[in-house]
Amino acid sequence: MLLVASVAYLLAVRRVRGRGQSWPLRRTIGFFALGLLPYAVIELGFLGVYAGQLRWAFSTRIALLIFAVPAGVAAGRPLDLVPRAMRDRFLASRPARVFGNAMVATVVIAAVFCLFLTPVAGILRVNPVVEASLGIVVPLVGLAMVLPMMALGAVHTGTFIAIEFLLAFVELLIDSVPGLLMRLNDSVLDLVPDAAQAAPWWPSLLHDQHLAGDMIWFIAEFADVPILVILMIRWMRADRVEAKGFDDLTDEEYDAMTRAHLRGER
């Protein structure tokens, strides 16, 4: 996946520059340094190696893959490398419009974190095929939410974005619930027997679960900050576009629109 993403991105940058268009170097650096490098560290480092044995490594890995990696990849603006017609079709599609708002993102992320409270988390963790496939599926789910969210600011109205912004604050509370329940629960929720003590520092079964709850809680709350920033920027841009639209109206057009609004016309 690292190789495919790197080659595809560099070829797209080369094609854009071949057409005589400029492409800032900071975007390329951001794509690799903030997106692919953290992905490599997560999947090939401690979290990826011990995710099948340690609950806290597994939960931390999933949380970072759905939050941090997509946000880092988005810093490289990959959608801007796609031909305009293809990008417009993608953003106009129903899946992009559904996933590209904070309301759906709140539900999806809450549903993913709630899985850690069920035996499903244990099945996903101990099955090597499923556990490995999560390294591809989870970042793609995060990208499906982050990339349209950053690109659809000009499509959504200021009122819609304001609702998204309020829901993002609600998400701050919702995301903390699974982590708190894991931390405060004194019974093992995934029903998987304790792994062998591979090292002296290996946590007990219950302590492992408590650490997993701590990590989910911390990462989820910290990762909501960039989402709030994105929504704030979108809100400001949409407000400027709407204000400019009113400024461009003539006095007669503005009076006609005001009378139509007072009559309740749409």
Instruction: Look at the helices and sheets and give the structural class.
Output: mainly alpha
Measured distance between first and last alpha carbons: 49 Å
- What is the averaged pLDDT score? 81
Taking all Cα atoms into account, the compactness measure Rg is 22 Å
Provide the number of structural domains.
1
Describe what this molecule looks like in 3D.
The chain has helices at about 1-20, 25-45, 45-50, 55-75, 85-90, 95-100, 100-115, 120-125, 130-150, 160-175, 175-185, 205-245, 250-260. About 30% of the residues are buried. It is built from 13 helices and no strands. The termini are far apart. The chain is globular. The chain has about 270 residues and is mainly α. The chain has one domain (about 1-260).
Which terms summarize this structure?
mainly alpha, 266 residues
Write the layout of secondary structure elements.
Elements (H helix, E strand, L loop, with lengths): L1 H17 L6 H20 L1 H5 L4 H20 L9 H9 L1 H6 L2 H13 L4 H8 L1 H24 L6 H17 L1 H9 L20 H43 L3 H12 L4
Question: What would you say about this model in short?
Answer:
The chain has 266 residues and is mainly alpha-helical. It has helices at 2-18, 25-44, 46-50, 55-74, 84-92, 94-99, 102-114, 119-126, 128-151, 158-174, 176-184, 205-247, 251-262.
